[in-house]
Amino acid sequence: MDSMMMGAMSKNMESMPDMQMMDMAVMQACMDACAACEQACTVCSTQMMDCSPACMNCADMCNTMMRSMMRMQGMTPASMMAMLNACIAMCRTCMDACGRHADESDVCRMCAQACQACMDACTAMKDMLMASA
């Protein structure tokens, strides 16, 4: 299914200025990391610890980032870069908040790790965008 979706997205992006050179494997990894982070943050937010608001915000941001990558129409490299920066910033906020509980809570530790993985994937996506510019 992933390869079918990536094929369809790649075909759509051929007509978009400045987006033809996207590495679909990097994009897929970023979408997967955003989805995993959204799920981890959603689970973590139910613990009702002081990290819950950051977790809820991060889950929403990761969902928005992933959905934006799935429908690239209307995106430009500049708007994609802004979205990636926002996602990285929200993941850092959540990771820091959950990091304070990581020794006591396996869920917070998992959430912080998912946030780190998402930041890494978003950074790889940014690097790809800058290299193709």
Automatic annotation (TrEMBL):
Pfam families assigned: Csp
UniProt-listed Gene3D superfamilies: 1.20.1270.360
UniProt-recorded name of the protein: Uncharacterized protein
